[in-house]
Amino acid sequence: MSQAKPVVNVSRVLHLYVEEGKGIRQVAAEVEAGWKQVQRLLKRHGVLRPGGRYAPSSYSAKLYRQAAAKKLGRVLRRGELVHHIDGDHANMTEKNLFVTNRSGHQLLHRQLERMALRLVRNGLIQWQDDSYTFSSEMERQLKHV
Hints:
Layout (H helix, E strand, L loop, with lengths): L9 H10 L4 H8 L3 H10 L13 H15 L7 E5 L12 E5 H20 L3 E4 L2 E4 L1 H8 L2
Antiparallel strand pairs: 1-2, 3-4
């Protein structure tokens, strides 16, 4: 008679592997499961690509694609990408997600870059000590936002 496999807390496994960056064997030891069981679970949830290579953003990508699909009321089509309006991939609120295709997504990022360069040219963003910083005028304006 074979023993039943222990029930594994999926969210704990995903947290340990994705958020804390622990290896499969470390995660398996912490959740008291076999490493193959953990590996299968990670594949099933889209965190590991076929062949076992880590896909660092695949789990979060799956989550924000689900949130965008909910916003649209349909499953995202092949080739559709999700743009995070505020640039924060952790912000999966519907108002922060915009569905577009690859060329549209590239256009959005080029537009954002052009706007940032315009702020540099107008002195609102300055180069200082090997990095960009906001000017004092821009800092004052941001405090009121």
